[in-house]
Each structure stands twice: as C-alpha cells, then as structure tokens.
Specification:
This is Lipoprotein. This protein is an alpha+beta fold. Helices cover about 25% and strands about 30% of the residues.
C-alpha cells in the first residue's frame, strides 16, 4: 500500500488591517475577562463577630467606645457595599434598633418602606424584625438586610443607581456569624 502525500493548502491570507483587528478584538476580550469589576474577598472585621465577602477592598472603621460599633464599606461597579454593626444595651432594644436601621435608610433615600422578606442568617438570634428588603428612592436603590446576634445588631447594604442582583446574593450568602 502506497501512502499518498496529503495536499496541504496554505492558510488564507487576510489583509494586514483585518488580521490586526482580529488580534485587537481577541486581546480586548481577554483583557475584559481578566479584570472583573467585582473582586470578591473574605474579611473578618475586628469586633464584628462576622465573616463577610466583599466585592472590593473596603475601608474599615471600628469604634470600641462608648459602645462597640463599626462600618466596613467599599465601592465597585457603581455600587456601594457595606456591613455595619452596633451593640445595644438591653435585649428589649434589639427589635427597635433593627426597625430604626431600615427606617433610617428608607428616609435617606426618600423611599417608602415596602413589605419585607423574612431573613435567616446562620447563627443569628431569631428576631421578628430580622428582614431583608429592596428600597427604591428617587436616584438610588438599595438592598438591605438587618439582623442580630445577642445584643449586636447588623445591617448589610448594597446601594446604587442600578443594583446587581447576583452581587447581592453573593454578598448576603457570603455572610457568616462567627462563634
């Protein structure tokens, strides 16, 4: 049996401008794929009793006195993401503090308070006022979750003109209360 040589056709030649354009498009697509707007990272802010995923490098402000409280916030993709916490003096103040947190954000946005969804964060203290909701203001929208563990109350917030729902789900489900 005799092997026949295979006919090899030369690769098609494109004009230089087309070839450069294709390489430019492929390079641009690669660059965009490698530079995400949301770069998730895990944090355990001192004094928070929480572990949380943030989509960008946050600024952290913790104040131990007169009562422990803190704020962790970052901005990415035209949105701001934050976790705040504070200690209340008595168990009877927890529900009122959670209610006041969401009402203050609604007032700041000029948004009516919609019906809230029940919220469960593993490790939280069960509380009727532990909820999540979406607020729509004139210029901005917000997703907010308020909950407590013991005497510590928390607020997780996503704020922006347009909200990335997938980012909110990642932010919320990436939150863990530490033992």
């Amino acid at each position: 049996m005799m092997n026949k040589p295979l006919a090899v056709r030369p690769a098609p030649r494109f004009p230089g401008g087309v070839r450069r354009g294709v390489f430019l498009l492929v390079g641009l697509a690669t660059l965009l794929a490698c530079s995400p707007q949301l770069d998730w990272r895990e944090l355990r802010p001192d004094g928070s009793g929480a572990q949380v995923l943030f989509p960008c490098k946050p600024d952290i402000d913790v104040r131990p006195a007169p009562s422990p409280r803190g704020l962790v916030v970052c901005k990415a993709a035209a949105q701001s993401f934050s976790l705040s916490w504070a200690e209340v003096a008595e168990p009877a103040q927890v529900g009122a503090a959670l209610r006041a947190m969401r009402e203050a954000l609604a007032a700041k946005l000029g948004a009516p308070l919609p019906e809230a969804q029940t919220l469960v964060v593993p490790g939280m203290t069960p509380q009727l006022e532990a909820v999540q909701l979406r607020l729509q203001g004139r210029d901005q929208a917000a997703r907010v979750a308020v909950f407590a563990r013991g005497l510590r109350v928390y607020q997780l917030t996503q704020l922006g003109a347009g909200l990335d729902e997938q980012a909110w789900e990642t932010f919320l489900t990436g939150l863990k209360l530490l033992p």
